[in-house]
Amino acid sequence: IEVLGRVNAFCDVFKSFVNGSHEDKRLAQRNRAFYSIFKRDIRGTAPDFRPFEKPENYVALDDTEGEMALTERDPGVEMMGIYDISKVIQESIGWELPNNVPYQAKANLIAQFVKLWVAPSERCLAGINDVLDEVINTLISIHFGRFKVLEGYVGDLIRTQVDICKALTKEAVKTALDLEATPYYTQNTHYLQTLQEKWLAYYKAARNQPHRFEVHSEPLEEKYQHYGIDHGPEIESAGHSSNSYHRAYETPESKALRALAEAGYTNLSIADLVRLLPPDSHEKELIVMADVRAYYHVAYKRIIDHIPLTIHHALHHALAEQLSQSLFTSLLTDVASGPNFSERMNELVSEDASVAQKRASLSTRKQ
Predict the structure, then answer these.
(1) pLDDT tens column, 291-332
(2) Following DSSP, what letter does each residue of 277-345 receive, concatenated?
């Protein structure tokens, strides 16, 4: 009864650690920290497209929404300019009709960032495994540490089950990453289209006034604000720019929007003005850049949730659900196979020899 009671208590406490109901929140909190690092690392794999002939002379164009600024880029990401994209397109041409960009060109560019997701996923899982080992070892010591024989025996059973779940989780994470390989697909078409339009407008605007994106020019924040594309849906529209502050610091673009609003063309944004620019000689390269960049954001928002949820369900949730039955089955099977059930149980909860010797010594002194 002592053995079964301690095993049952261990399983209940571990389950409360997993679902976050225990007063000790270290498992959930440290896991969340690793998931945040994973999110940052995946963000760092964003394509580095710079729509210029000499991309090294310009800053990276990494954000159109003002809330996804890139802090650290993965070293595996290659800076690519207009000519680099043109080369990718040329190398992908088969029997397409003129002016048709091969799908393979976009697929090759997408594959470049998707393959970079393996290493961050593996680092994340390794960190999560370390946290789990620490929690498991602590709980084993708390619940079984009084009886060294029981601690060693049950501890081995628990760690065996943990290793099984780790192996299954590793495969589950690999499967989740494989889902991001070809075909590159999403049903979130509205979001994809919206992003594609934003990035295309951004790249066209940058090419129209490249001096604003030269290295050592004005701060990035001012560049984004100039094109009105740093706040997504909050972009100031015509008909809502008449306050005194904006009149005092009104840009030529804002003046144009105000004039259009007075002419009856309301609810336009600065980004809409980009559509008035003349055709670009590298229009197809800009479209490829915009399409790939848009798909990256859709896939990014998918993978940063999918991997953590896969780890939690395949590792923590599965272990919490299976551990109790697995331990009781292994324990009872092993004990029942011996000649004496009662004797084996007593052996498991026998007092450590050093503790018994110390108790006997203290008892002798007291007498």
Answers:
(1) 999 999 999 999 999 999 999 999 999 999 999 999 988 877
(2) SPPPTTHHHHHHHHHHHHHHHHHHHHHHHHHHHHHIIIIIIHHHHHHHHHHHHHHHHHHHTSS-HHHHH
